[in-house]
């Protein structure tokens, strides 16, 4: 069927690819991968329907290596496979192969109803970045499947020029912590009026420390002075990663009310927190921080000593009366 004008060596393996014997088909598909002859593309696309998932997976890998656009649609169909390894390999291949030309095809698949395909397409849309996908993504914010809600809100942050999306804000209160974690990061890319207050609430009240950490990261991106009160409160969080990213956010919005908690954090158990608190104090440029910063020049962690010295230098440089030193 495929072998008319093929290299005879390729043709014999293509023929074996249709063998009823699984071992023969495995040998054939592996050999075709090794030979790398593009005449095998169509037979390999046919092998995507093989009853054995290992044959399918190797065929996907080989088509991926050929990088021929003719394989994109057949590979998209593999995203619905009941076999996890087949779906995973197809997704990896398509991450490199799809382009904006494939957007409409992907959006069609998104509406088919196969959960595996929907999850994978939501991932692929992150590569294409096209805001046209937004109306197709938003319905998944209300999906009964938490994995789809999580995937959709992650995809939202990758869509170009989308800076407002009020329906996504409700996911900040989602009962599933993985959805809230993803939402907390996505909110840092939005500018709806309710975003900063929502992030402040997540930072100070959410029971999941990773949600609180992600909220701090987003507040760092947004750099809104409205968040300072919540950030000051979060510097006493029980989890060091929350304190670390909160200190980083305070670097972007220097405010005198943060001075006491930042000075206290110079004695934090974790060096990352001490380092970022020192940097935040340097940005604050208040001479009241100098005695505490001087003490950290003996810190056991070299980074803390370096960043504390930089903070001291920054504070001193900001004071005109020290210019004659």
UniProtKB/TrEMBL annotation:
In terms of InterPro entries, this protein maps to: ARM-like (IPR011989), ARM-type_fold (IPR016024), HEAT_type_2 (IPR021133), PBS_lyase_HEAT (IPR004155)
Q: From the UniProt record, which GO molecular function terms apply?
A: lyase activity; oxidoreductase activity
Q: Give the highest taxon in the source lineage.
A: Bacteria
Question: Which is a Gene Ontology cellular component entry for this protein?
Answer: phycobilisome
The record's SUPFAM superfamilies line, in alphabetical order, gives: ARM repeat (SSF48371)
Coiled coil where? Answer: none
Q: Which UniProt keywords apply?
A: Antenna complex, Lyase, Phycobilisome
**By its UniProt entry, which Pfam families does this protein fall under?**
HEAT_2, HEAT_PBS
Function, please? Catalyzes the hydroxylation of the N(6)-(4-aminobutyl)-L-lysine intermediate produced by deoxyhypusine synthase/DHPS on a critical lysine of the eukaryotic translation initiation factor 5A/eIF-5A. This is the second step of the post-translational modification of that lysine into an unusual amino acid residue named hypusine. Hypusination is unique to mature eIF-5A factor and is essential for its function.
Q: What is this protein called?
A: PBS lyase
State the species of origin. Answer: Phormidium tenue NIES-30
Q: What is the lineage of its organism?
A: Bacteria, Bacillati, Cyanobacteriota, Cyanophyceae, Oscillatoriophycideae
């Amino acid at each position: 069927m495929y072998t008319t004008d093929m290299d005879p060596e390729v043709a014999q393996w293509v023929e074996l690819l249709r063998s009823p014997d699984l071992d023969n088909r495995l040998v054939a598909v592996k050999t075709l991968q090794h030979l790398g002859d593009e005449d095998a593309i169509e037979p390999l696309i046919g092998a995507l329907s093989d009853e054995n998932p290992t044959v399918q997976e190797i065929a996907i890998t080989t088509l991926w290596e050929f990088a021929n656009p003719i394989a994109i649609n057949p590979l998209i169909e593999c995203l619905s496979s009941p076999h996890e390894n087949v779906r995973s390999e197809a997704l990896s291949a398509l991450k490199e192969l799809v382009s904006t030309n494939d957007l409409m095809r992907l959006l069609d698949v998104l509406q088919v109803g196969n959960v595996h395909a929907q999850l994978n397409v939501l991932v692929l849309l992150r590569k294409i970045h096209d805001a046209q996908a937004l109306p197709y993504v938003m319905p998944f914010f209300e999906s009964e499947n938490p994995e789809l809600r999580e995937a959709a809100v992650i995809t939202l942050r990758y869509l170009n020029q989308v800076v407002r999306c009020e329906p996504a804000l409700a996911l900040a209160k989602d009962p599933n912590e993985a959805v809230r974690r993803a939402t907390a990061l996505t909110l840092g890319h939005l500018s709806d009026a309710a975003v900063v207050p929502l992030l402040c609430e997540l930072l100070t009240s959410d029971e999941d420390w990773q949600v609180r950490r992600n909220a701090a990261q987003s507040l760092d991106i947004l750099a809104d002075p409205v968040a300072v009160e919540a950030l000051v409160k979060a510097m006493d969080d029980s989890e060091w990663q929350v304190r670390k990213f909160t200190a980083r956010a305070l670097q972007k919005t220097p405010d005198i009310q943060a001075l006491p908690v930042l000075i206290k954090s110079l004695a934090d158990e974790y060096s990352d927190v001490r380092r970022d608190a020192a940097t935040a104090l340097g940005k604050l440029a208040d001479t009241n921080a100098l005695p505490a910063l001087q003490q950290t020049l003996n810190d056991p962690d070299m980074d803390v000593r370096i960043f504390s010295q930089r903070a001291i230098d920054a504070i001193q440089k900001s004071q005109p009366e020290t210019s004659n030193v």
